Structure formats: structure tokens, C-alpha cells
Amino acid sequence: MRISQPLALTTLAAAALAVAGCGSENDDAPAGHADHAVHSEHEHPADGGPAPAGIAEATDPTYPVGTEVTLTADHMPGMDGATATISGAFDTTAYAVSYTPTDGGDPVTNHKWVVQEELEGVGDEELAPGDTAVMTAGHMPGMQGAEATVDASTDETVYMVDIDSPEMTMTRHKWVVESEIQPK
After folding, report:
1. Which of 71, 105, 119, 180 fits a disulfide with 101 by CB distance 3.0 to 4.6 angstroms?
2. Residue 46 pLDDT
């Protein structure tokens, strides 16, 4: 496993049942979440959709599809400590990126994660911190078509997860890396 910069554990959670907001407007935001700034207009869909074309399924993931796990990520409020079920496991490079949304929203810094297959025109070329690429990912409004600057990357196994907790219900949430997951 290669990590180009130290990985901070991050959180994944969302607003009520249908759609989860990534921003927080209170002082109770999880540690490290301030990097996202307040951008509550950036909401994750309740269903993240299928994995991008061309992504390789992991051949021997630590957490196979169907495994129930505990998330330690803090990408969104309510994610850290949530129970999730693995809905996909992939071998790819994941990037933490900064970008300005195409819909006029506030700049987003250190967004975790976008995978290699969600970047235009990079093929198999692994990007380094400071490199830029246009995103094809549609995890949040204003993301698709935005130019992203790579903050960090990792070659850990990358997972899609289904979350059903009092704070949120999401299927095929993209993405959580292996270091952000613990056995249930």
C-alpha cells in the first residue's frame, strides 16, 4: 500500500433518509471536516449508482461484498462509527482532491475520495499531489466536469458501502478506503 500523504481518518454520513449533506454549519463538525468548508448545497444522492466503467473488482478484498463493517471515516456527519455493508470492493487509486464546483458553490478542499476511473484522460497514469484532472464523478452537485487538484492518493482497496442508520440511508456510497473500515 502506498499513501502519498498521511491519511487522516475521515467521516461518511448524511442528512436524513434520502439525501446526505456533506457540509456542516455548526461547531460540532467532526475533526478534519472543516477542510470541506460549509457547502451544504453539496449533497450526496441516496443511491450512489454503479461503479465507474473500467474499474477492477478486488480479487481478494479484506472485506468482501456483503460483509458488515464499522466505518471509521468522517467524510460526513454520522458516518464515524456507523454500521455499513460492503456493496463493492475495487483495486484502483483513490484521490483526495480540492476543486471549485461547476454550479458556483464554495471551493471544496480535501474531498475524499475520487477514484482513477472518475478522472478524464488520465488512463492508468497515477497522479501526484498538485496534479490536476477533470472529474467525471457525480458524487455531489457541481463535481462532474470540475477540475480537481490532487491533495493525496492511496492504493488501498476502495469500497462502496450501503449505510442504514438513524442518521442516514445510502446505497453504493462512493468511496471508503480500507483504513477507514473496521470489522463489525
Report:
1. 105
2. 81
